[in-house]
Amino acid sequence: MKQLLKIIKIGGKLIENEALLNSFMDDFVQLEGPKILVHGGGNKATEVAGKLGFKTKMIDGRRITDKNSMEVITMVYGGLLNKSIVAKLQAKKQNAIGLCGADGQVLISRRREVKEINYGFVGDVESVNTEFIDSILEQNMIPVFSAISCTKEGILLNTNGDSVASEIAIAMSRDYETQLFFCSEKKGVLTDIEDENSVIPELNSDNYNKLVQSKIITDGMLPKLHNCFEAIERGVSAIVLGDAKLLKKNSIHTKIVK
Amino acid sequence: MKQLLKIIKIGGKLIENEALLNSFMDDFVQLEGPKILVHGGGNKATEVAGKLGFKTKMIDGRRITDKNSMEVITMVYGGLLNKSIVAKLQAKKQNAIGLCGADGQVLISRRREVKEINYGFVGDVESVNTEFIDSILEQNMIPVFSAISCTKEGILLNTNGDSVASEIAIAMSRDYETQLFFCSEKKGVLTDIEDENSVIPELNSDNYNKLVQSKIITDGMLPKLHNCFEAIERGVSAIVLGDAKLLKKNSIHTKIVK
User: Fold this and answer.
1) What residue ranges of chain B have pLDDT lower than 50?
2) Chain A CB contacts of B48 below 8 Å
3) Count of CB atoms situated within 10 Å of the CB of B29
4) Interface pTM, i.e. ipTM
5) Would an 8 Å CB–CB cutoff place B91 in contact with chain A?
6) Third-level CATH fold of A3-183
7) Considering the entire predicted model, what is its pTM?
């Protein structure tokens, strides 16, 4: 039987709110066995960019990462947030190492093709250096990833944090049983978007398809869940969706299985 | 016989000037055998801090690192400069990994005691995790250090880049023959401060003491050279002082030996 490996993605308010982050970190350090943390940090980058006089360009609600924006992302995700999280883990007596995709060629990506819109320095992960991640886990260290990847040609690229976590989980599935945790603002997949208590405890592809057909799952959740089931198809054993309390015992959440 | 390990420290103008840095990197990748890069980045941090509206406080020409300054240093040294250098090395087909002292508890420091002046978040390296550095070198990766260390309690501290390089070289001397290279604005130790061509090719403690007694070496060079001879006493086999062209074949420089 393969060893269990947990990959946890955090972002949004959880990163920005010091108290929430500290409470999450207390739960995170309690998790037993090998684990990996992946973080974004969107709003902090926008805030720093604004103070530096760089305007964040958005097209259809998506950030355009020009050269200045990429510098800010490298500062904020790759430096400030990443190293602060590593230092917080050290303070809690868990050895960790902060990485962006360039470090150890751990996340090699391809720059997104320019079609109607040029998103700038944005890329999609093409390969994960699992051997390098393994060498870190074997030293009892927690790899902490900022959502930055790097092309073969050494260009740093802004990369979707959820995708980074998924691609790592998929790649590590060869040697581990992988569980992927997405901590966001929502407690999980809801049957009623207005009712926070309507969390669906478990989804498999059968009842997922039924819920889509009956239009109980719609809109924003569709692409996210589509990606989740793709990750499951590609080897991830389970995906858990929840809020900042996701790692607490008896948390309310949605678990996605095959 | 121990294997040779080269530790190269860069800072100042070399970091700030893109063309100079690229030219240096071309020389750096030509260096054979295991090697480590250490960088500072002072003025870029001051520039970013200024744009963010943080005033850099100085007392007697020394920077006071308050909480805001430490955040900027973590962004600029730990993120922007560190990850850009790693990406540059990847572009040149040399695998590298960017580290601050918190990563893998690689540089554990003690916060500087408050005496007359409180320098804030500033520390001195107390221990180097040589086993972790070795594991990186064994994977044929170049460790790239930003001048940030971390206390046992997980507090990130601004740390003198020259000292970081020295402490790493000293610690690695147990298992390697270490050579330390300091690249700065000067070609080496000069007999005449006004004459750039008066570089002393080699210094040992005998001729160093004579040059100090005859007041040929004075002022600013004294503490730097004192630290160099201390590193030599503590196991470093040679220290080379020069400018951005230091790693070129037949460079003009000062070599310090026992």
Assistant:
1) none
2) 52, 75
3) 17
4) 0.94
5) yes
6) Carbamate kinase (3.40.1160)
7) 0.96
